[in-house]
Amino acid sequence: MRDVTSHTRIEASSRQAMVVCLTDGSPETFWESGEEDKSRSRTLNVTFEGCSPVLLCLFIDNSRDEACRTSQVAFRAAMSDGSRRDLMSKNLDQNFCGWVKCCVANVTHVSISLKGPHNASRVRQLQVLGFLAEGKTEVIRPSASHQLFFNNTQHDAFALFQAISAQAFSGESCEQQDALRERVVDLLFSRVTLQPLQNYVCTQVEAALEREVERLCCQGKRNYSYAVGLLAMANRMCETRAIGNGDCDVAARHQVLQAASRLLAFAPEAVQTQCLSSLCSLLPTARASTVDISRLLRHLLVPVAKALVLQVRDKAAHSVTTATMNSCLTNAPLSWRTDRSVSPEIGKMTAQFISDVCSGAFNEDWSVCMRRELATALLGVVQLTTSLSKSGSRESMNKESVPSILNSKRFWLSVAALALVRDRSWLALSEKWNDVRTPSQEPVTLCENHDDGMTPAQVFCSDCECALCRECFSVMHLHKRNRSHRVTSLAPPPARLEEIDIHQGCARMRVANLLILFHGESLNGLVELPADPFAALTNAAITAGRSTSSVCRFCGNALDPHNQLVGVCSHPDCVRYSATACCRTLPCGHPCGGIAGEKQCLPCLICASEGTAQDGDDVCVVCFTDRLCAAPCVQLGCGHLLHYHCVRAVLEKRWPGPRIQFRFMNCPLCNVPISHPGLADLLDPLLALKADVAAKANMRLEFDGLLGCTALTDPQSEYFGKPEEYAMDRYMYVLCNVCNKAYFGGESRCQMALQSFQYNAAELVCGGCSAPAGTEVCGRHGAEYLEYKCRYCCSIAVYFCFGTTHFCAACHDDFQRLVCLPRNQFPPCPTGPRATPGEGPCPLRRPHPPAGEEFALGCGICRNISTF
């Protein structure tokens, strides 16, 4: 259906000139019955021409029209024989405000009667929805309400301007039309308030943007300038006073919001940033009730899902595979454009935007609605796994159904929603979620050996003809004659949807036999397929007479009866973990999840404990490939748990790139420095190096006379009262490959060219280690602070290459050109990086040979120099 009001003729019982206000699209204007209707019925007669009407709607606002209230509305249809047929009659409350709707299908003429307690009645808007007759087209008519105030000349100018607006927003982007569009917007929204025309232009912007997004999505267009221009116009219109008052609220036209959110899935990064900016501008002025939030959220979740990186771990096979939506989803809608990726930055920005909406940053209505839709989106993976588990056995669910799950768009949208849920209370907002959480009426098979009436059966023995739980089966089949019984696994009990938790920013959801863990800040997650101990019931475990509870403490697989390790399978990873794992058993009966040699064991990772905010089902935020209980863990000084081998790997790898940085020594969850006795062998040398770098940076800061700079004395500065932190951030230090000591590499702002992938650690040599025999050494500070000038510019050298040449970072990246450059082509002092002409005085502040020659600057502390 569409709006076919322009194909109707309206006649009133009085004040015919005001009828045009009923179809101007604004609730601020109205038709009011006149004095002549005091003693007769107040009617509106609507005749449909060239259309097939379906719904006739009247907008009445009794709360505002206190002196002209309408208490009853009656609709009657005129038949071809002259008779009338009652369609509908409705009584209205004295505070009624809204639309009165009547079905008018197969009717050509309708008479509307109005009654009220006062001498007059008011109707603010009339709208007809239906279908155009074949061959009919939309008619561009001048705004109706202004016909009351315009003379013939103004009327013609008004109609001409409407035609120009329609033409401006109807075609492709070109220089002439871009200028025309800008002029139209300037005339309407910068100088005067022409509400009907503003409404009309807003409608044209919406239609043009929707058409352009469809072309970009389906036709593969690459030029996004037209779409960006339309979004910019929508932002400008939204910022004007008329728009802000709600009279012509472009944000309330949800097509603009939908179009901007659709572009996030496939547009270039610059356009995606513009779309997010537009959404932030438009959303606060829109009413949540007028927008299809379910569709809007689906569009917003697509770029988040594209940026997700999932590690799919099969515990039985000890395998880990990386999955992304673009690589796994083959039946995605065309509008998702899985052939185009989304950067992690855009994914995080979109996720942050959704989080801001949910947190109430715009208004409470949007917050509640968005939370409800996020909870509903989580149902996708629940419904998917439930349908797949009913179609096959538990083992087939583990093996064969994984590709089907990863190839489902519902799964990826659900995981993206899981990354954004911050509290379990959000789930209660969704009626659909509450319906699914209602206990299933399907009977659950119970263990026949238990009399508690609640223990579910997990296997069925065909020879014994009984259903048993895992523990009862292992005890009753220990005898040799029972070991050959035929055993089948029963379907797992219905998924418990309440198993959703948020721990330390990590959301987890257990559905059927899938465990989904996700860290929202990094957009990394884990999907774990647990080992099925019943897969080995009829073979090794039963033959050896071992209990099925004897599974590996790390991977959950059934233990080999010939394995000599206690509680650990023979897989190399599990054997490696057992070498550092604590062998003690906690009072609850579970093995300790910590490392050997600790004075105090960790709180149990399986049982609920108040000693830690994490448990064994949380994902390790360092590797994102396994749960905490899958390997020995350490509890850092801040209280957070991480895999022991993961933390050691981070500390051994140290900083990325040549510049010494110490952020890797902080907890990834709270940014507090890492501390643990089991890591002392790695932490002690690093802490000593950090103290050395801090002392050298503080000394240079003092000699440069910067202890009283604004960055340290301004209370609003991030470095206020933190000279050590400021010095380490201002100056760059590099680790010498020969003496393993830190040496000065220039100021941080001058070393932007020093990329982590463009250096060789063997070429990082300090001035003292690269100095030839006979070089003058400072009698006060020794050779430790000896610095060299870059051979090709007036900068401090960082690299020492070929055993003969000192380079700064910028010249090192361009060394192939510089080493072949004749000396007479080098610019005079001051020489900039890459042998370019410099400006101002020489930053070295001392005489030196021209570019192209090696030169030792001497002790850097004693010289008190400035650098590029």
Automatic annotation (TrEMBL):
Primary subcellular site in the record, as a coarse category: other
Q: Which residues cross the membrane?
A: none
What's the EC number here? Answer: 2.3.2.33
Query: Any idea where the DOC domain is?
Result: 1-155
One of the Pfam families matching this protein, by short name? zf-B_box
Task: Please name the top-level EC class of this enzyme.
Answer: transferase
- Give the catalysed reaction(s), semicolon-separated: [E2 ubiquitin-conjugating enzyme]-S-ubiquitinyl-L-cysteine + [acceptor protein]-L-threonine = [E2 ubiquitin-conjugating enzyme]-L-cysteine + [acceptor protein]-3-O-ubiquitinyl-L-threonine
Q: Name one GO molecular function term.
A: zinc ion binding
Please list the residue ranges annotated as the B box-type domain. 442-490
Gene Ontology CC, one term? axon
Q: Keyword annotations for this protein?
A: Cell projection, Metal-binding, Repeat, Transferase, Ubl conjugation pathway, Zinc, Zinc-finger
Q: Where is the RING-type domain?
A: 620-671
* Keyword check for Zinc: yes
Give an example GO biological process.
regulation of presynapse organization
Q: What CDD domains has UniProt attached to this entry?
A: Bbox2_MYCBP2, RING-H2_PHR
Gene3D superfamilies assigned to the protein according to its UniProt record, in alphabetical order: Galactose-binding domain-like (2.60.120.260), Zinc/RING finger domain, C3HC4 (zinc finger) (3.30.40.10)
Protein family:
Belongs to the RING-Cys relay (RCR) family.
Q: What is this protein called?
A: RCR-type E3 ubiquitin transferase
**Which species expresses this protein natively?**
Ancylostoma ceylanicum
